[in-house]
Design goal:
Layout (H helix, E strand, L loop, with lengths): L11 H5 L2 E3 L6 E3 L14 E3 L6 E3 L20 H26 L11 H4 L4 H26 L12 H16 L4 H10 L4 H10 L4 H15 L4 H10 L4 H10 L3
Helix pairs in contact: 5-7, 6-7, 8-10, 9-10
């Protein structure tokens, strides 16, 4: 009986080039890719940080050298506890400053009738009556001015899931290039809801044209593409037609 192959074997060249081998079709591709560029199989592989051997992302230690795979700092519980404490302190101090600004006293003008009250003739008395009638209207002016003071706008509180999705989105963009929809899909794959993933992609500050250019460059460093083929690959990754054309143009096409 013939022995079946257990899957593609990682070569020394793929170890040094930062690539993994697709277990479905045997195609080597960059370890940071979400899917195999040939067959579309979801990438669940990574490289050992110690020896560079191919291993499962969920493995706690390398099967080749036995090195433990430590979690990145942003995946550790104490890191997020510290982030929450810092955000709470910053929010509290900001709220106190706004409250002290809104409660500042407003000076009100006063009208005196001392000079008029000393006069005994009829015309002086008439002037006094006119001033007394005008006084209530003038005293109402400061109250209207106080009511017209704009209250400081209250910024909506960002939920924990949205903050984490934003931090995760930024860490992915520091590692490799993504399209807008591709980044949302990756965040959803990590377990974030659609709303949280969308918030992370909307607020990560990425220039999607530049992301398309970086993605095109990474593909060209890996293998050769025609212009139309490279555009099709970028469209498959979720970039728009305009972003894909911008990306290939920036790389010499």
């Amino acid at each position: 009986m013939e022995n079946k192959s257990s899957g593609p074997v990682q070569t020394e060249s793929s170890k040094t080039s930062g690539q993994v081998i697709c277990p479905k079709c045997g195609t080597p591709f960059a370890a940071g890719e979400k899917k195999c560029p040939s067959c579309g199989e979801t990438n669940r592989l990574t490289l050992c940080k110690s020896c560079g051997a191919q291993m499962a992302k969920s493995a706690k230690q390398c099967p080749s050298c036995g090195a433990k795979q430590k979690k990145p700092i942003y995946k550790r519980v104490w890191f997020w506890i510290l982030v929450v404490i810092v955000v709470m302190i910053a929010s509290s101090s900001s709220g106190k400053e706004k409250q002290s600004t809104a409660s500042a006293p407003t000076a009100t003008p006063q009208v005196t009738n001392e000079a008029v009250s000393d006069s005994k003739d009829t015309s002086a008395q008439s002037d006094t009556n006119e001033l007394q009638e005008a006084e209530p209207a003038e005293s109402e002016a400061p109250q209207e001015a106080v009511s017209e003071i704009e209250q400081p706008a209250v910024e909506p509180e960002v939920a924990m899931g949205e903050r984490n999705a934003l931090a995760k989105a930024k860490s992915y963009l520091d590692f490799t290039a993504f399209s807008y929809t591709g980044l949302i899909d990756q965040l959803e794959y990590e377990g974030f809801s659609t709303e949280e993933a969308t918030y992370g992609a909307d607020n990560c500050g990425a220039d999607w044209n530049e992301q398309a250019a970086k993605k095109a460059k990474s593909y060209l460093e890996f293998t050769s593409f025609s212009r139309s083929g490279l555009i099709d690959q970028l469209l498959y990754d979720g970039f728009t037609q305009e972003q894909a054309e911008y990306g290939v143009t920036q790389n010499g096409y």
